Amino acid sequence: MAAQCAQESIYNLLPRLEEKPVKPPRPSVKSEVAKNKAQWKTMGPAKAAVPSPKNFLQKHSKEPKLPARKKEQDSKKLPALSVPRRTDHPVMGIQSKKNFINTNAVAAITGLPKKPQPIYVDRRQGDKYLLETSGLVPKYIKKKDYGVTPKYVTRRNEEMKKAQKEYEAGILEHLKKRAMKQLSDEERRSLLQGLKKNWEEAYREFQGLSVEIDTIPKKIYKEKLESQMKQLEHDIEVIEKHKVIYIANE
């Protein structure tokens, strides 16, 4: 009983967790981890080459530069200047005996007067403008080819006329193919004999009809023979009356 009381304590009220010892990693695992670890997965700044302080960014260093001038361009002579150089000295001591006042007076008296430039105004109290450059002067009538038919128009008209002639020639040829031809005497004679033979056959069938027609089919057949004989008689009469016969080509 005394032993049990001695073991009781406030520190023994909660059960203690047993701490398992952690085994150290094997050396093969350490080497594999170090081998597969990339540089960008490291903590801290990457190990990169630091630029030298002597290679600092200078002014206008990134602007585009022109290529070096070739020797051929240097050897070319510069064009002659119309303006005198600084080193040139004017010719001194030249005097002229010309009387410019009299010369100008004679030129003004004997010279032709200047023609005033034609102008126009846009309104009564408006500004003045040159008439020549305004487009109001019909300068186009003074051209050499004014009023002449352009070449493309004449060529177009010739092509249209040629196409019209070809079209008319095709129509005439088509009409000639479909034109009527004249029957010869032999054809006319054989046609007339064939019509008479057909009339005789139709007449023979008509004579063979029964005297008493008491059914509808007999009546229809009789009317058919009568109309056929009448048409044959009309055709025979026309062919015998006209010696010259024309028929259309199909």
Description:
It is a single chain. By secondary structure, the protein is mainly alpha-helical. Helix content is 43%, strand content 5%. The chain has 7 helices and 4 strands. The strands form 2 sheets. The chain has a two-stranded antiparallel ribbon. The protein has a two-stranded antiparallel ribbon with strand order 3-4. The longest helix has 27 residues, at 151-177. The radius of gyration is 64 Å and the shape is flat.
What does the radius of gyration come to?
Answer: 64 Å
The total of beta strands comes to 4
Low-confidence stretches: none
The coarse overall form would be flat
> What separation lies between the terminal Cα atoms?
147 Å
Look at the helices and sheets and give the structural class.
mainly alpha
Brief digest:
The protein has 250 residues and is mostly helical.
Indicate the topology:
Layout: H1 2-7, H2 27-36, H3 71-75, H4 100-110, E1 119-121, E2 128-130, H5 151-177, E3 180-182, H6 185-207, H7 216-241, E4 246-248
Key traits:
single chain; 250 residues; mainly alpha; two-stranded antiparallel ribbon; two-stranded antiparallel sheet; 7 helices; flat
